[in-house]
Amino acid sequence: MLPRKYYPQWQGNLFERRAQSIAEQLCGEGMTIDFDQLLAKSPGRPDAIFHWHQDQAYWIDTDDRRTATCWLAVDDSTVENGCMQFLPGSHLEPVRRHRPLHGDRSSSHTLVTDLQPHDVMRPVEISRGDITVHNEGVLHGSGGNYSASSYRRAYIVALRSQSTVAEERRRGFTHSHNDGGEVLNAVDGLHA
User: Which residues lie across from 145 on neighbouring strands?
Assistant: First the structure.
């Protein structure tokens, strides 16, 4: 989490600038980077799963819910190496109940939810350099990496409205265990 915090030279890179432009085209003016992260699934890691979740389960509830999470494929992203999968239309439904993957939020930052019998997840294979964009309500996740030699790496920049990010920071809210704030689940009221 937060490569731009730990390596300040990263700030203002081309992808950040493009993500900012995409967010403002989709959501309007006043969007800003909320957080960034790097993800890597090593080859031969079928256990490298990102369980089903909606980002809103992690975030505080605010009046301005505009978001655009830009997910850049550093490598080709395939079903075999664990590409992103989305549930179309899930952003139009209420946020589902989520729970910590392991124990409680103090030992596991990861939140998960269950698929319903009618849910049909859609894998989205993309090539290196391509991106996906989703909002906070879209149910998504990804499978493990079953390939013998292919990494699945990604660089994520999440943008939200300036007022929402300011309110998060005012409340001491954080998106990870490594930035010194309070880990909070606004949907279920879980605290770390």
Answer: 45
From 1.10.10.60, 2.60.120.620, 3.40.50.300, 3.30.70.260, which CATH number describes the 3-191 domain? Answer: 2.60.120.620
| Contact criterion met (CB below 8 Å) for 187 and 136 | no
Which residues, including other chains, have CB under 8 Å from residue 166's CB and lie 6 or more apart? none
Q: Which of 64, 45, 63, 44 is nearest to 149 (CA)?
A: 44
Which of 138, 37, 49 shows the shortest CA–CA distance to 87? 138
pLDDT digits (tens, 9 = 90+) for 167-188: 999 988 877 655 555 444 444 4
What's the whole-model pTM score? 0.88
